[in-house]
């Protein structure tokens, strides 16, 4: 099978992309609107992109009507957001926050999600999340206009929070204790319970 984007609908291209680019980590993102309403939504077009300075990105694509999602509007207006790692026990709550709440409604308040204050940014942290990255917006890149067009929010990490009970003996997050979930295509998700190791290859 071959697919030429030039001859395919945006919907089909999107469905193939998210079924093939897997598993995707999930950024569970808190922001605050200019009028002070907290917002929480998941984004799996997400990754870390560098460590010096520590930098990550997530991509809220335009809605079907071409408008910006609330997380994007808020990040652009305030320059701040917090990314949380989603563990298996939080997957359903994370999914609940992806519903199309109106801009006046805080997903955090509507769903009764417990938060704590962040240190350097206004968006709060999800208390139950195993790890969180407080971020300041470095830049936002709009690649196109219209439905499903990409907006890339690049953030500099100004504080990392790692729950002590997920640390391994080496001081890093233990994948078994982190129990992170990843997004697949359709309605599927992956768990990190089945793992294998490879030592980094070297030229002899
Ligand atoms: C696991 C998961 C991953 C998602 N990833 C993305 C994504 O990468 N980009 C995107 O625009 N929407 C994504 N969504 C949909 C948004 O979460 C949804 O549109 C949400 O309502 C946006 O909220 P906001 O308008 O408050 O920012 C995802 C939903 C789920 C459940």
Please specify the SSE layout and strand pairing.
Layout: H1 10-20, E1 24-25, E2 27-32, E3 38-43, E4 46-51, E5 54-58, H2 70-78, E6 80-85, H3 91-96, H4 107-110, E7 115-116, E8 125-126, E9 131-142, E10 151-162, H5 175-178, E11 181-183, E12 189-191
Antiparallel strand pairs: 1-11, 2-3, 2-6, 4-5, 5-10, 6-9, 7-8, 9-10, 11-12
Bound molecules: flavin mononucleotide.
Flavin mononucleotide binds at residues 26, 39, 41-45, 59-61, 69-71, 95, 98, 100, 183.
Task: Compute the number of strand runs.
Answer: 12
* CATH topology group of the domain at 26-164: Pnp Oxidase, Chain A
Largest sheet: 7 strands, antiparallel
Query: Unreliable runs, pLDDT <50, ≥5 residues?
Result: none
Look at the helices and sheets and give the structural class. alpha+beta
Terminal Cα span: 39 Å
The CATH homologous superfamily of the domain at 26-164 is termed Electron Transport, Fmn-binding Protein, Chain A
Oligomeric form: single chain
Rounded to an integer in angstroms, the radius of gyration calculated over CA atoms is: 18 Å
Average residue-wise pLDDT = 98
Residues in helices, as a percent range: 10-25%
- Beta-strand level of the residues, as a percent range? 25-35%
How would you sum up the global shape? globular
What is the CATH class designation of the domain at 26-164? Mainly Beta
Order of H and E elements: HEEEEEHEHHEEEEHEE
Helix segment count?
Answer: 5
The molecules bound to the chains, other than polymers, are: flavin mononucleotide
